[in-house]
Amino acid sequence: MSYEQLLEARDYVRQQTDFDVRTALILGTGLNDLAREIEAEIRLPFGKIPHFPKATAPGHKSELILGRLNGHPVIATAGRLHYYEGHSMQEVVFPLRLMHLLGAETVILSNAAGGVHEKFNAGDLVLITDHINLMPDNPLRGPNDERLGPRFPDMSDAYDAQLQQLARDKAQWMGLTLREGVYVALPGPNLETPAEYEMIHRIGGQLVGMSTVPEVIAARHMGMKVLAFSVVSNACYPLSRIRPVSVEEVIAVAQAAEPKLGALVKSCLSETA
C-alpha cells in the first residue's frame, strides 16, 4: 500500500478529530476489553477509513480509537490484521503506519501465544524480549519509500530496552509474575504440530504465534519504540503437555488474563504517553 494511501487515511482521521497522541496500542487477543476503558474522543470503524483493511479474526473488533486511557492520550486498534486472513504484509501493517503518521512514537502490542517453555503455563504474562521471524513474507519487501524509513533498518534493538525494564519494574511493584521470552512468528492459521513445537524450542523460541512481528518490523522501520506482551494461551512444551485446543479456548484464556495485562499496560502508560 502506498504512502499516498496512508496520507488519505490520515487526512480522513484528521478531518474527524485533531486529538493529539504519542502512544499507539494494538489490542490483539488478550487486550480487546481494554478498548472499553478508553475515554474515546472518537471511534472510527475500520471500514470508514480510506484503504483500511477489515479485520476478520475471531475475537477481534474493527475500530480505530483515539482517546484517553488512565488520563493518557492514546490511539488504539481494537483488533488487528493477520497475514493468515489473506491480507498482504503491507495491509497487515497499514494500521500501525497510519497511527505513526497521526503522531504515535511508541507502540504497545499484545497477543496470545503458545508457550514453548517448560515453566510457562496457560494464562501467564510474558514480556517479549526478541523474536524469530518465520513468516514467508515481510512488510518491507518491494520498493522502499524513504518517507517511511530506511531500506535496511537495523533490528538489533527491536524491543526497547528501557521500556522492557519499565515493564519489569511495574510488574514487580504490582506483584505480578512477568515471564520473558523470544516470540517465534509463523503464518498460521493452523496451530503447530509437535515437531514444529520441538523445532521452535530448539532454535531458541519460548513463544509461538501468528502476529506481532510484521508490526514490530514496520514500527522499527519508522523509528518507533516497541513494547510487546504475550498471554500464554496453551502449554506446548515439553511435548507431553500438548493437547488439542480450540480458538474458543485460546480466547477464553486470554480474556481471563486480560485484567492483569491491562493493568500492567496502563501502569506502563504513565511513563510512555
Would you write up a description of this structure?
This protein has about 270 residues and is an alpha/beta fold. The chain has a single domain, classed as Nucleoside phosphorylase domain (Rossmann fold). Helices cover about 30% and strands about 25% of the residues. The protein is built from 7 helices and 9 strands, in the order αββββααββαβαβαβα. A hairpin with a 2-residue loop joins strand 3 and strand 4. Helix 4 crosses helix 7. It starts with a helix and ends with a helix.
Question: Short description, anyone?
Answer:
30% of the residues lie in helices and 25% in strands.
CATH architecture call: 3-Layer(aba) Sandwich
CATH topology title:
Rossmann fold
Structural class: alpha/beta
Q: Given the C-alpha coordinates, what overall shape results?
A: globular
What's the overall average pLDDT, rounded? 94
Strand content: 15-25%
- Strand segment count: 9
Walk across the major sheet and give the strand order. Answer: 5-8-7-6-9
Helical coverage, percent range = 25-40%
Largest sheet: 5 strands, mixed, barrel
Radius of gyration, CA atoms, in whole angstroms? 17 Å
- pLDDT < 50 stretches: none
Taking the alpha carbons of the first and last residues, their distance comes to 28 Å
Can you say what the CATH homologous superfamily is? Nucleoside phosphorylase domain
Tally of contiguous helical segments: 7
Helix/strand order, N-terminal first: HEEEEHHEEHEHEHEH
